[in-house]
Amino acid sequence: MKHIAVAVDGPAGAGKSSVSKAVAKDLGYTYIDTGAMYRAAALFAIENGIDIRNDRAELISRLDEIKIALKNENGAQRVYLNGKDVSERIRQADVSVGSSDIAVIPEVRVKLVALQREMAKTADVIMDGRDICTHVLPDAQVKIFLTASVDARAKRRYDEIREKGEECDFEKIKADIEYRDKNDSSRAVSPLKKADDAILLDTTELDFGQVTEKMKELIRNVL
Ligand code: DC
After folding, report:
1. Residue with the nearest Cα to atom 18 of ligand 1?
2. CB under 6 Å to ligand 1: residues?
3. Is 169 in contact with 147 (CB distance < 8 Å)?
4. Which domains does the chain have, with CATH numbers?
5. 146 near 8, Cβ under 8 Å?
6. Using an 8 Å Cβ cutoff, are 136 and 111 in contact?
7. 70 DSSP β-pair partners
8. Whose CA is nearest to atom 9 of ligand 1?
9. What does the pLDDT look like over 182-221, one tens digit per residue?
10. Is the whole-model pTM more than 0.85?
């Protein structure tokens, strides 16, 4: 039997991961966070002293050394890089910017897209990222483009970090998001772009519960 695929794209901080995770849990699907894979690859570069923007050839020559695994442990998704749990480390600001830089490299994308397509063959999935509707799973039964204004996205990130009791600077968060928006949308290979047949969901004025309900409704309607 063919598995169901729900593809979710959108810019940084639109709430894709948290909403997709909640919807996956409610519907019994497997959630696949493709951004976490680009983040893990960026962390490999950072830990090995490879300058992503300037040492591209070295990075490409070492791609085979990068082994990424997503595991579901007690209902939570954990991200492993070469056997080490890096789930928390990959959320830090240096990795966020690095992941956007590494995502412009075609060889990196080819490797990660192959892995993502394999994962979608094994279960009913909700997969989120930047190119899932347009490139990774163009035949997904449900395609959603989740977005929100830059200010709303920066504010959510800011609140998330403050909730963990950590200090942060709103303007810096907003600048990082703007940098990634530009980088992710303007790259030559698989740029962030709404697929023509994806449903647009603007979450600027919606809270988490409303977005989750709306997404479940869209999935029910399409299926
Ligand atoms: O969704 P995220 O913020 O965790 O993603 C981190 C970076 O990875 C993002 O800036 C762009 C890149 N990315 C991508 O190019 N393609 C994807 N399918 C997912 C993420």
Report:
1. 129
2. 12, 34-35, 38-39, 99-100, 103, 129-132, 180, 184
3. no
4. 5-222 (3.40.50.300)
5. yes
6. no
7. 79
8. 100
9. 999 999 999 999 999 999 999 999 999 999 999 999 999 9
10. yes
